[in-house]
Amino acid sequence: MSSHTGSNADVPGGNLPGKHTEAGEAAERSESPFADPGLPPHEPRVQDIDERAAKRSERTVALLFTVSMLATIGFIASYVIFPIDQYVYIWPLGEVSALNFSLGMTLGIALFCIGAGAVHWARTLMSDHELIGERHPIEADEPTKATVLAEFQQGAKESQLGRRKLIRNTMFGALALVPLSGVVLLRDLGPLPGDKLRHTAWAPGKLLVNQNTDEPLRPEDVTVGSLVFVKPQGLEEGTHDFQTEIAKAAVMLVRLEPEDIKDPKELDWSHEGIVAFSRICTHVGCPVTLYEQQTHHVLCPCHQSTFDLADGARVIFGPAGHPLPQLRISVNDDGFLEAQGDFAEPVGPSFWERG
User: Fold this and answer.
1) Are residues 208 and 227 in the same domain?
2) What transmembrane ranges does the database entry give (predicted)?
3) How many CB atoms lie within 10 A of CB 330?
4) What is the CATH number of the domain that holds 268?
5) Are the C-beta atoms of residues 75 and 107 closer than 8 Å to each other?
6) Residues 178 and 221 in one domain
C-alpha cells in the first residue's frame, strides 16, 4: 500500500475503493523487495560484426545438415548391407546385431545433426535481441495482429533464410531425406505375400508322412475310424520355416467306407476310402482336431465349426465360411501314400477367398 496520507478529495475518483493515483502505484513499485531489474544491455555476437565468422557458422550448420543426409543414406543402406542374423563385437557393448546397431547409430546421427544444426543456426546467425511481450487478452485486436505479422516478417528477414542459401538448401535436403527412414522401416512388416498363401509344401509325388512317427504311410496303416495327422515329405521340424509351412500344409487322414462317401469328387480324390483334408479351419485358422467316428464329423475346438468328411468336408455348423480343402492322394509303386499335387484352393480362413 502507498504511504501517501494526504487528501485525495480533489482527485477524480479518489474516494472510490480500490483506486490509486499514479504516484501511489509508482511508490508501490519502488518499495517492492523484488524490483524488476529490466533487460541487460544487448551485446553483439562476433557473427554480428564479422562476416567471416558468420560464414564459418553458416558452413558449420551446412556441414551438420550434410552429415544428417549422409547418415540417412547410411540408415537405408544398412538394410541392404547387413543381414538380420549377423552379429559383431563392439566394445563395450559386446556381441550386438550389426543391423540394429547400424540402424540406431545412423538414425541417431541424422536426427541429432538436424537438431544441432538448427540450434547453432539460431544461436549464431538469427537475431538474438530479446523482446518483451506484454500480456494481452486471448483474442487479439487488430493492432496486435498487425504487430505479430510485422514481427514474423522481421524474424523471417533476420533468419537470413533467403540470404544464406547454403544453409537453406542443405536444411531442405536433410528434412527431405530423414522421413525416408520411416518409409524403409516399413520393410519390417515383412515382404509382400504375393500368392504364397495360395500354395503349400504339397506337390506331386510328395509322400504323406506321419507327424508323430515321422514315417511315410501305407494304406494299411490307416484303419477305418482312425484319424492320422500327416505332413509333406521333406518338411522337418526344427527348420526355420517349419512353422510357416506346416501352418498351411497340415493334413488329416481319415479312412471311411467307400460306400459312405457322398461326394463323387471326394471319392475320386481318395484311395480305398482314405481321404485327406486340410487341418486348418476355414474360419480363423485353428487346427481341426476333434473327430466323431460315427458321424464322420470333425470339429474345430475354437469356435465349434463342424465339417462333414463324408460329404466333401462341407460346413454343417459354426462360423466357417467354406469346406475344408481336399488333397488328392494315391499310392506310388512302393506302396506308400503320396499326393497328386497341391490343394486346388487356398487353405485356411475364408477371408482369403478363392481365385
Assistant:
1) yes
2) 61-81, 101-122, 166-186
3) 14
4) 2.102.10.10
5) yes
6) no
Q: For helices 51-81 and 98-124, what crossing angle results, to 10°?
A: 160
- Check residue 157 and give its pLDDT: 85
pLDDT, position 186: 78
Is residue 207 a part of any domain in this protein? yes
Three cell numbers, residue 183: 518409409
Does residue 232 contact residue 242 with C-beta atoms inside 8 Å?
no
Express each pLDDT in 7-57 by its tens digit: 444 444 444 444 445 555 555 555 667 777 777 888 899 999 999 999 999
Average pLDDT of the chain, as a whole number: 85
Kindly state whether residue 135 falls inside one of the protein's structural domains: no
Q: How confident is the model at residue 84 (pLDDT cuts 50, 70, 90)?
A: confident
Q: Could you read off the pLDDT of 317-354 as tens digits, one per residue?
A: 999 988 999 999 999 999 999 999 999 888 888 655 55
Quote the domain boundaries for residue 184: 46-129+147-189
Number of domains in the chain: 2
